[in-house]
Amino acid sequence: MSAQILDGKALAAKMKENIRLEAAALRRQPGLAVILVGDNGASQVYVRNKVKDCSDCGIACFDYYLSADTTQEQLLTLIDELNGREDVDGILVQLPLPAHLEERPVLEAISPMKDMDAFHPENMGRILRGDARFKPCTPAGVMELLHEAGIDPAGKHCVVVGRSNIVGKPMALLLLQENGTVTVCHSRTPDLKEQCLRADILVSAVGRENLITADMVKDGAVVIDVAMNRNAAGKLCGDVDYAAVAEKASYITPVPGGVGPMTRAMLMANTLTAAKLRENR
Ligand code: NAP
Question: Is the Cβ atom of 142 under 6 angstroms away from ligand 1?
């Protein structure tokens, strides 16, 4: 079997165009505030991409570049100001923060109504309860890819490798919400291969090149590679041994061009949702 490619780049472009049309139809232009603290090179690229996505979607972008020595208090003051601003529907603080800043109080300071990453405990609790207001961008992007290809997790065995709050845990909950039977694996899982071989839908979100090899994948499985690693040649790659696994899987996401563009599109979708929620209040 040679897998069909789940083309995140194409789907993200389609979604962004729909978002642009919906945003233009609102009474007020939606607005997203993006805060970057420090000069992490990868984070700078991510923020630049977000600014571009906003421009593509007709969303106002308020980008803040704070110096690496910004204090916790200064950051919290800015978030407080943005929470109160009428022209800001969504707030995103680019992670990771410099080591001297505490992540949790910063993420909890963002109003749950403007929490575009859905990291606030209220939004995480809603995801757990099954009535999400905003969904974390990466797992939500994976669900969109599945929906677009007509892949229904209901009744399927879904194996999620990785249990971070950002990807693995919410991924498992979204699959469960759609009636998948979900197994979550992590660094203490002793029999990763056996677990993966049971998967009808396998999602890997670890960050280790070639963690998932063809002998760990059942014939016809759907394989989603969330990871973004650099290989020895400096090329972007995921967790999955793509060429070999594509021979066994029914569907597979490439890296790049799979989950990454969907994560970006879902941030725009969450901003639109936030703007609509405020318009309807
Ligand atoms: P993370 O916080 O480092 O979590 C990694 C998870 O992998 C942890 O739960 C860890 O288990 C587990 N793990 C580590 N080694 C393992 C092993 N040998 N076998 C099984 N599980 C193992 O990372 P993250 O933030 O979730 O991100 C994961 C990957 O996705 C990274 O490559 C990141 O760059 C990528 N990512 C991509 C996007 C996108 O848009 N495409 C978005 C976010 C993240 P423990 O909990 O036991 O330590």
Answer: no
